[in-house]
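re: that chain from earlier
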Amino acid sequence: MVEESDLKQWRDAGHVARRTLEGIKGEIVAGKAWDEVIDSAERFIRRHGGTPAFPVTISVNDIAAHYTTDSRQNPPEGFEGEMVFQDGDLVKLDVGVHITGALADNALTIEVGNGGNHTDQIKAAREARDASIEKMHPGTPWWEIGAAADQVHTDAGFQPIRNLCGHELKRWNLHAGTSIPSYDIGPTDASGFKGSVELGSVYAVEPFNTTGKSGMIENIPPAHSSNIFRVTGDITIRKAMLKGKLKPLGATMARYIEERYHTLPFAERWAYPLLEKPFPGEEEDVLRKKWNALVKKLISIRFLETYAALRCEDRGMIGQFEHTVWITEGGPEVLTIE
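^ sequence. v structure.
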């Protein structure tokens, strides 16, 4: 629960997150590289007093979420061509901000070139988000929240994505346990979404839709295809060393990572340059091998976890909008506003 007295940092994070979306969306134009927009957005966040709560992600067409560029500019598996925006692309820009762990998460969808090919889908995704938020009063059961989004999507001729959810936010914890359905689970089949909207809680509301038929997303291989990692908090560096699971260099690198990112997601391209501190002037291919070995080790001992990027199972086009809201006695307060 976030008390009114503690809300300023959450509101400030929300303002920066929203200003970033609005300030950067105009850069998503034909011919612009994905990584240029990602870098611009992350710099915008820092310039305006925030810190990225996770790497800015760009998801194009059938890619749904969790993709950020890596230090070598490798495209997602199955993606053909350069990672440059083309007229007609359906682009999701997802931005998170934290201020000393107080979080805000928001996203929007735009069509590159504004050719009108995806107008109805974009409108439905935005309205589904807003319909869910309107229902978010204390005590509302989660199935009603999902049903509100579902009705907007299906009335407009699109499928809601059923295996992606919104999520509760707590300080330093982006996915804090409670999941928010984005489809109609019905009052009798809500076992995975027990409970109701809670007073004082903060939630990220983000229904997705698709032009596909299955309404499902799948992982893009390999397991780390998102290029995003997170410190799990399951094992301490000290305990790993005492058990002989971590050598001094590995412990030093793990400490670098933990001190910078806590348990929030971070990008490979942020952390990889940290290797230059203990290995100044080392050849790139040698550094790359050391990085791969380090990551493999830290994942094997459960110090780190990684994420796969996500795409529509039957390659439908994906739309998404997202706001972060705080629940008051009178209903939801949207925190991700300018």
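Residues 237 and 338 are 40 Å apart (CA to CA).
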